[in-house]
Amino acid sequence: MRRYVLHNPFNIYHFEASDWEHPVHKHTYYEIIFILRGKGIHNINGNTYTYTKGDVYLLGPEDFHDFDIEETTEFCFIRFNESYSKTTSSLADKQWQHVLELLLFTSSQSRGTIVHDKLEKQKLHQLLSVLESEYDNPPSAHFELIRDSLMRSIMTILARNLSPQPHFKPELQDSIEAMLRFIKQNIYQPNKLTIDHIAEQFHLAPAYVSIFFKKHTGESLKQYIIKHRIKLVETRLLYSQMTLTEIADEFGFTDESHFCKQFRQYTGVNPSTFRKNGQTFQ
Q1: Where do the domains of the chain lie, and which CATH numbers do they carry?
Q2: CA 267, CA 227: separation in Å to the nearest integer?
Q3: Percent of the chain beyond pLDDT 90?
Q4: Of 21, 36, 122, 272, which one has the greatest count of Cβ atoms within 10 A?
């Protein structure tokens, strides 16, 4: 499968098409896709969704997709890579970091378009219009500040709409998508990520939780939780001034010693060395 690469941390791609010319593909970056007019089918990760004017999609690096266009469609793609998202989060407060993590690390594709409310769609499209205007004009000394403020507003609205809503289909509560979302939303509270608690949350037998999770993801529940926590810890080490004790406390480790031991076990280096060298855990 083809994988598209973004060579700049951020760009906007606005175009219209009557036929979709790209093959099914993945990316090395994130995409926020706005449907400005038109209609058709959006194929995402093997699922099919009808799209129409006002719909907004969020795709991550491992999502694959293409479009079947039924009526000439005007698209606007906001594309940004992980380095851009880390840069914006490094300058923000703890609450914003949590919003960003919810948005970028929670799979949203079990529902198609993220936004359903007409007023929410209008807000997003108004913000997009201002962002495009700034992007298309010659860069000013204040462009990055304006861009990042607008992106923060857009992404916060998307994160708000990504939270479970009553109108979503009940069966999503028992899907692997819902379980992944639950894990990522509670990554700071280890007591909520025990097998017994997850089993109770999703009305499954405790003995079946691990089997269900590995069947749908290819890895064990324990490994997934640890790897996801380590990736978030990496961001704290590289892009914040938090002490090791503060990081250990935020992620629910018993103490700093326990945190350092587990980090070293999965990365091969201790947190202080990782922070000093600016490494990344694969």
Answers
A1: 6-162 (2.60.120.280), 170-277 (1.10.10.60)
A2: 10
A3: 37
A4: 36
